[in-house]
Write a structure and sequence with these properties.
Helix 1 crosses helix 4 and helix 2 crosses helix 3. With about 180 residues, the chain is α/β, with parallel strands linked by helices. The radius of gyration is 15 Å and the shape is globular. The longest helix has 18 residues. The protein contains 4 helices and 7 strands. About 30% of the residues lie in helices and about 25% in strands. Strands 2-3-4-1-5-7-6 form a 7-stranded mixed β-sheet, sandwiched between helices. It has one domain: Peptidyl-tRNA hydrolase (Rossmann fold).
Amino acid sequence: MEHKLIIGLGNPDPLLEGTYHNVGVLAVQWLAEHAAQNAAQPAFRSYKNLFVYATIGAATFVRPLVYMNESGRAVKEAMRVFKARAEDIAIIHDDSDIAIGDFKLAKSGRSAGHRGIQSIIDHLKTQDFTRIRIGIREKDEPHRKKAGDFVLSPITAKDKKVLENVFKNISASLV
């Protein structure tokens, strides 16, 4: 599967950088670094105040600079700038219904309550784009927590290692 734009959703607030809700941004950063295949970090350039991007080979890695709920604005503009169609993009985001360590890839579908995805659907007027949903829910939790109780929590050291393996698996699925 080849995508022109690989977009990671998150929130631009520095206080939220290392939280579970920013897993999409962390994934895009990791994917860009590994696509570059060198020790130097890829140079992300800013486009207005909407997003930053790094083009490596045929793919452009995008991190919106807007809050999750406004993602559609940044995604639509990135698509215009890079002349991409909905089928050319892959959106990576957190999913509180999937256990940490797992991810799901879908070609289309509704937002399932994810406000960032709903914003993209509203702006693009289509559901036909690839989504990579990364699990952030604790495995085998004894009592199901509400998403709001943990999505803005800092990612634990243990979960960072688990997520790195998820990012490796995503990278393999994007080839």
